[in-house]
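(Protein data)
===
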Amino acid sequence: MNSFSDPFAVSILDGLAQHLGQNSAGILLMPAQGAGQDELVRRTAGIPLDAVVFPLGGYVSSALLEHLRHRRIPLVGTGYPEADDVLHLHMDERGAARAIAQHLYDLGHRDVALLQLPGAGPNAQRDVMNPEALDRTAGFLEVFPEAVVITAGESSIEGGYEASERLFSDIHPFTAIAAQSDLMAVGAIRSIGAHGLSTPADISVAGFDGIDLPWLVGTLTTIDQRGQEKGRTIADMVTSALAGTRENREHSFTLVQGTSTDAPPQHAHA
């Protein structure tokens, strides 16, 4: 579980905890992905629960969902798991990725690469699938259908660096990299620097999340998801559901143009 090492995940959990704390509710964090689903069901069965939240989306086993359904408690997710009885705070992941791609296209980029999150590759196992990442990839490819797509090993600076290194060993040229998380985007910037190049003069880089990066030289072009607000809204959906009001909601995003993207170098298409 890497929620505490991912600033965006922490921001969602912070907003969630703030709101629920004001209502004297406690929070139990449990990983819902990976192996051990039967064990997760057994653990959950012995815990009194008023509601269950899936704040970071991703694949959730049918066994766990069935168990929670039998308990007749509110279930709230951020678009996933997809089920009629799960309340959703939905964000247009596909549209957000398309906005990033269109930004790069409008700057003049035509040779681009996409670093996608783990669980989005063609060989991803069902219990580690990342539906949000698949949506983001689909949206990006609407603008750049020929983009080079690399699946990172993890959503981290190191994961972004390693994935970018694979790009540099590829024969396909590129003038911009879009990463499906800000941490991976920072890794891409570091990889570019390690090759004696600079961002954005040689290669533009865009991220996704909108986390605070005060130590980064310059500012990152990204999709700001407003994590704390997202967490507070999820918590409000829980308290409303417990009071008898069950409704899905929409969460907006903002394209933030930083200094990490610019027009491609003039020699790029010479």
